[in-house]
Write a structure and sequence with these properties.
Strand order of the largest sheet of chain A: 1-12-7-4-2-3
Bound molecules: iron/sulfur cluster
Strand order of the largest sheet of chain B: 1-12-7-4-2-3
Largest interface: A-B, 45 and 62 residues
Number of strands of chain A: 12
Number of strands of chain B: 22
Strand content of chain A: 25-35%
Largest sheet of chain A: 6 strands, parallel
Distance between the termini of chain B: 48 Å
CATH architecture of chain A: 3-Layer(aba) Sandwich
Oligomer: heterodimer
Number of helices of chain B: 37
CATH superfamily of chain A: NagB/RpiA/CoA transferase-like
Radius of gyration of chain B: 29 Å
Radius of gyration of chain A: 16 Å
Number of domains of chain A: 1
Helix content of chain A: 25-40%
Shape of chain A: globular
Number of helices of chain A: 6
Strand content of chain B: 5-15%
């Protein structure tokens, strides 16, 4: 599959699994998008440092818009509304996000708050799980804590009624960053 | 016979409307979602791969366990090999004590339930908190049993959950699911943030890398393995696979077969200890993996039951099981439920504990069709039954019936003839009676049972066997007991249809019961005896094919005889030679008439060949026929499509499909006598599907099913008829 097809397949699957996919044309667009989207979900944000977050200047953008930003500390991510984390790969087949989550902050920010913002470079979408496993194996060092996330936290334990947000986020927003600007992808 | 307490549990479950309703609704929805989520996928190939990976691993647990241990230790984790439940419990307690831990958060783990960890910890002053929502609810309800392996609280209505939560919080809680889930999040979050240890199970353990893989939807396993400073994973040996790539097919099947999802919300793979917050700052957490044996290596060394270690615990076998759907996991007990559960229980607990649960299997084989690990669950259950009988002996009634009568064909035939005379007044001139020594049982099944025929087939064949001058084929007819003594007219129909096709049919007189009642009761001794007698009788006939019109007999001849006599130098080869000749009646008809089936589209009723008697009205009219798939006919012999082709090819027949045509009718031979309370609701569902189909006639290829369905329809006062395919063919071609 061509990367464009993978992207649209990924988007469809992720949304079918209950995630919200927000495509942006480049890193510079992330800040304004997030400010817009997150304001109704609360102003406290746990931000995990990562290449995309840095390139996007997220900290400054959010701070300027009045968000309170947590970057570490003993109670990291425990009391915030939103956690922002960059994921390593997307899996088109199931609309899944994959991350080497060995770092504690990556895990806490993606697990504890009610809203999780996943930053993902569109070029990092692979067709299936095997492709992603291979990518880590090629890297040579299998992660200590490897995580796959598909949609929000869910349960059907009471009367089989699907309810989201039981222990993890009830909202999964995927910011899909298209690397080469808007033209080629028609946006 | 099932124990009293076990009977009581069955009774309670059958009378629990909310349990039954919930399981039924779930099972119906499950079948659809499973189908959708596997659409376009090669399930057969997938299960082959999983079976190969898991079977291969089961052959070398020791090697894999060592490799796994080395990998975990290389990363700084600890591995403890626990021989049994006690060793595992003690180890966990030691670790907890070392750290002065008072509270533990747990994500769902069968292994921890298997070792009764919670009770043990509580006795030692440590509080375990279940964090899977359903497990937590059950934990708050002391004495409540889980009803399903994957959804243990599926039987609880939301009002009940609200009462439980109200009691826990000491304040009123509305039965609003969304709100109750919020409460669970809030309450359990406190536990996650304060517990000193997290305990998890694992769905897969990878030897090559020392990785444990955990799937959840709620995200509780992620929290339990991230927040507390100590993580203990309890992992059965059967979770081991050699390589990382082996997880791919398992992860493809587990959520699909489990809940009809393409993937669970979270898949967590932990390889060695990782950073955690340790009081003052970030450090490396402590990781302990307990590799639990508790009967698993004994199982792996068992040539028969090793197969059950392939199980990936998806519970799809129970989701499709007509018996489980009625009684739930609350009846099976001992953590693992359904047919597979009884096998695991036999090894993880004891054979005694498995005796009652295994007896619930009616042998319909639906589970074997859907198992993503390709485990032949019903055959394993039968093997288990044999072992139970070996150890505990046959119960009194079975011993008299099987060893005293069925094993002695002469006596049995005499008794059956006597029964046919004695029952005269009871039948009141109707072909059904309500009380009859069928299978020499004094139990009433609460269903009409047929009368024993006045003249068995074996006494009628003299008139049926007409020598053909140039027979196309020489066939020996193996009728089986039901056709011989209850429905000889089915046998006559077989003679008629085959005679018309130029087949010379003979009836080997020495034939006896195929032994199925003994096989399904675990009585190997009687089964072997009957196998030998039948083989000798059938060899004597010198026929090219051995025709059966009973799929249970066919399976006995084709598959069970060679199995029973394997390793017996005098008999093994003979059993195989006979087995190779066995052919089902309808299959034979299909082959013989293959080239000249009447096309269903051709105008019916142009006279001549059509005098289908009362069954099929002459002229342009057609009769609506619905086909019931007998379990053995479809799942052992694989002839479901062949039978439909044969029927469709007849004029005057309009085939309409009923819902769930391949769902068991609840007969199962003596099962319907042993567990009438389970057999009956299974039958009722079948009857409803038949009625809803609008058909006037039900066709089936198993005389046992014919018996069960006729009995059920008779009780309903329905005029829908049930016929064996042979009878329909005989009538339609007169
Ligand atoms: S064979 Fe039928 S009754 Fe037995 S466990 Fe499987 S599905 Fe249930
Ligand atoms: S026996 Fe097969 S179907 Fe049943 S739980 Fe195990 S893997 Fe799933």
């Amino acid at each position: 599959m061509a990367q464009d097809d993978l992207i649209s397949f990924f988007t469809r699957q992720a949304e079918a699994m209950g995630a919200q996919v927000i495509p942006v044309d480049g890193v510079r667009d992330i800040g304004p998008q997030l400010v817009e989207v997150l304001k109704s979900y609360g102003r406290k944000v746990a931000l995990v440092d990562s290449p995309v977050a840095r390139e996007a200047g997220l900290e400054a953008a959010l701070a300027a818009a009045g968000f309170h930003i947590e970057k570490d500390g003993a109670g990291f991510a425990r009391q915030v509304d939103t956690g922002i984390v960059e994921f390593d790969y997307g899996i088109a087949e199931t609309g899944t996000l994959a991350m080497d989550a060995t770092g504690l902050k990556e895990r806490l920010a993606a697990m504890l708050p009610l809203t999780c913002v996943a930053l993902l470079r569109a070029g990092r979408i692979r067709a299936n799980l095997s492709g992603v496993i291979d990518a880590y194996l090629e890297r040579g060092n299998w992660p200590g804590y490897f995580t796959l996330v598909t949609g929000p936290s869910r349960t059907a334990d009471i009367e089989r009624s699907l309810t989201i947000g039981v222990h993890g986020p009830e909202r999964l927003l995927i910011i899909l960053v298209k690397d080469n600007g808007g033209d080629r992808l028609g946006r | 016979m099932a124990g009293k307490e076990f009977r009581r549990r069955i009774h309670r479950a059958l009378n629990n409307a909310s349990l039954r309703g919930a399981l039924e609704r779930f099972a119906d929805a499950y079948i659809i979602s499973r189908e959708q989520v596997y659409a376009g996928r090669d399930f057969a190939a997938l299960r082959e791969r999983i079976a190969a990976i898991k079977a291969g691993a089961a052959g070398r647990y020791e090697e894999l366990a060592e490799q796994f241990t080395r990998a975990v230790e290389a990363r700084g984790g600890k591995v403890f090999r626990a021989k049994d439940a006690a060793a595992a419990r003690e180890y966990i307690y030691r670790v907890a004590k070392e750290h002065g831990i008072t509270d533990i958060v747990k994500s769902k783990s069968f292994a921890s339930e298997e070792i009764h960890l919670n009770e043990f910890l509580q006795e030692h002053g440590i509080t375990p908190h279940e964090t899977d929502l359903a497990e937590w609810i059950l934990q708050l309800m002391p004495g409540e049993r889980p009803s399903h392996m994957v959804m243990p609280a599926i039987h609880l209505p939301k009002e009940e959950v609200a009462r439980v939560f109200s009691r826990y919080l000491g304040e009123p809680v509305e039965p609003d699911i969304k709100n109750m889930v919020r409460i669970a999040r809030r309450e359990l979050r406190k536990k996650f943030l304060t517990a000193g240890m997290g305990i998890s199970g694992a769905n897969i353990a990878v030897a090559e890398t020392g990785t444990i893989v955990i799937c959840t939807n709620e995200g509780n396993a992620r929290l339990a393995t991230t927040v507390p400073p100590v993580h203990v994973a309890i992992v059965g040996y059967e979770k081991l696979v050699p390589e990382l790539k082996d997880i791919v097919p398992i992860l493809e099947a587990l959520p699909r077969s489990g809940t009809g999802q393409p993937i669970t919300s979270y898949v967590t793979m932990i390889t060695g200890p990782v950073p955690a917050w340790l009081g003052e700052g970030e450090g490396i957490k402590e990781l302990h993996v307990i590799l639990l044996d508790n009967g698993r290596t004994r199982m792996a060394a068992d040539p028969v039951f090793k197969e059950a270690l392939q199980c990936i615990r998806c519970a799809s076998c129970t989701n499709v099981c007509p018996v489980f759907q009625l009684v739930s996991g609350q009846v099976y007990g001992h953590i693992y439920s359904g047919g597979i559960g009884s096998i695991l229980t036999a090894f993880f607990n004891s054979l005694e504990d498995a005796a009652d649960p295994q007896s619930l299997c009616i042998g319909c084989r639906r589970c074997a069709e859907v198992c993503p690990a390709k485990i032949n669950i019903p055959d394993l259950v039968l093997k288990l039954r044999e072992r139970v009988v070996e150890k505990q002996g046959l119960s009194g009634g079975y011993r008299i019936a099987l060893r005293g009568v069925v094993a002695k064909p002469e006596l049995m035939h005499t008794l059956l003839r006597a029964a046919s005379r004695l029952q005269g007044p009871v039948t009141c001139g109707r072909p059904f009676i309500r009380h009859l020594p069928l299978f020499f049982s004094s139990f009433t099944a609460g269903r009409s049972l047929p009368a024993i025929a006045g003249k068995p087939l074996r006494d009628r064949v003299k008139d049926l066997e007409r020598p053909l001058s140039w027979p196309r084929l020489r066939a020996a007819f193996y009728s089986g007991c039901v056709i011989d003594f209850v429905y000889p007219e089915i046998g006559e129909a077989v003679y008629k249809v085959l005679g018309r096709e130029g087949v010379q049919v003979t009836f080997p007189r020495g034939q006896a019961c195929c032994g199925a009642p003994a096989i399904y009761a675990g009585d190997r001794e009687t089964a072997v005896k009957l196998a030998r007698q039948n083989i000798a009788a059938l060899e004597g006939a010198g026929a090219e094919v051995i025709v059966t019109a009973c799929p249970t007999c066919a399976v006995a001849l084709k598959k069970d005889f060679p199995g029973l006599l394997a390793g017996d130098p005098a008999w093994e080869g003979r059993a195989r030679a006979i087995a190779a000749k066995v052919k089902d009646f309808t299959e034979l008809v299909y082959e013989l008439t293959g080239g000249r089936q009447e096309s269903p589209g051709s105008p019916a009723g142009n006279g001549e060949k059509q005098h289908p008697g009362e069954l099929i009205p002459a002229g342009k009219q057609t009769v609506k026929v619905t086909y019931h798939d007998s379990c053995h006919f479809k799942r052992h012999l694989g002839l479901d499509r062949v039978a439909r082709e044969v029927l469709k090819g007849r004029q005057g027949i309009e085939l309409v499909e009923m819902r769930e045509s391949d769902r068991c009718c609840g007969f199962g031979g003596s099962y319907s006598i042993k567990y009438p309370e389970i057999s009956r609701p299974i039958l009722e569902r079948k009857l409803k599907n038949i009625m809803d189909s609008g058909a006037k006639l039900v066709a089936a290829d198993c005389p046992g099913c014919v018996l069960q369905l006729r009995g059920g329809l008779d009780q309903l006062g329905s005029d829908v008829e049930v016929k064996h395919t042979a009878e329909i063919l005989a009538a339609s071609e007169e």
